[in-house]
Amino acid sequence: MEKPEDHATVRIVNEQAFGQPLEANIVETLRWDCSEALSLVADETGEVIGHIMFTPATIENQSGKMKGMGLAPMAVLPARQRQGIGSKLVKQGLRILQDRGCPFVIVLGHPEYYPRFGFEMASKYGVTSQWEGIPDDAFMILIIDKSILPNLSGVARYRDEFNDAI
């Protein structure tokens, strides 16, 4: 779990991983505005080398809103990428969310990366992104609670803080 003393380093990790401050700014805003966020760090000998955040997301359809989580962002220091750090963060976060009874997680990300964790194209289930122009294979969903399948379709929405990133 991220601790207050990690905040400055988490910002650096996100800025370096993405090459810009946008994602770091979103993390800081969400940290203060979203009490339901799950924010985890990977550290090595006390130094933060990776970060992942999950925040509430919804799928809306004619039946109403279904609450789950959205994965974003996930960042690892460039010098430490491709060493399994991001995978460990994703797996740990998904385990925690499953234990908390989260029914689904959405992600907008690399189609070659996230399927290894069970993510599938969201369109397979009739779920679309709130943002137009998102490549079909890049918008994915992991269904944790299979009992939601009969009602699973509609528009998936991240928190409004992410709108500036798209």
Describe the structure.
The structure is a single chain. By secondary structure, this protein is an alpha+beta fold. The chain has a single domain (4-165), classed as Aminopeptidase, CATH 3.40.630. Helix content is 23%, strand content 33%. It has three helices and eight strands, in the order H-H-E-E-E-H-E-E-E-E-E. Strands 1, 2, 3, 4, 5, 6, 7 and 8 form an eight-stranded mixed β-sheet that branches. The mean pLDDT is 95.
Using brief descriptors, characterize the structure shown.
3 helices, Aminopeptidase, eight-stranded mixed beta sheet, 166 residues, 33% strand, alpha+beta, globular
Sequence-ordered SSE layout with sheet pairings:
Layout (H helix, E strand, L loop, with lengths): L6 H12 L3 H12 L4 E7 L2 E15 L2 E13 L8 H15 L4 E5 L11 E2 L5 E3 L9 E5 L10 E4 L9
Parallel strand pairs: 3-4, 6-8
Antiparallel strand pairs: 1-2, 2-3, 2-8, 4-7, 5-7
Helix pairs in contact: 1-2
Largest sheet, strands/sense/barrel: 8 strands, mixed
Discrete helix count: 3
Sum up the overall morphology in one term: globular
Task: Report the strand count.
Answer: 8
How large, in whole angstroms, is the Cα Rg? 15 Å
Structural class call reads: alpha+beta
Order of helices and strands: HHEEEHEEEEE
What is the second-level CATH architecture?
3-Layer(aba) Sandwich
Strand content: 25-35%
Summarize the structure.
Helix content is 23%, strand content 33%. It has 166 residues and is of the alpha+beta class.
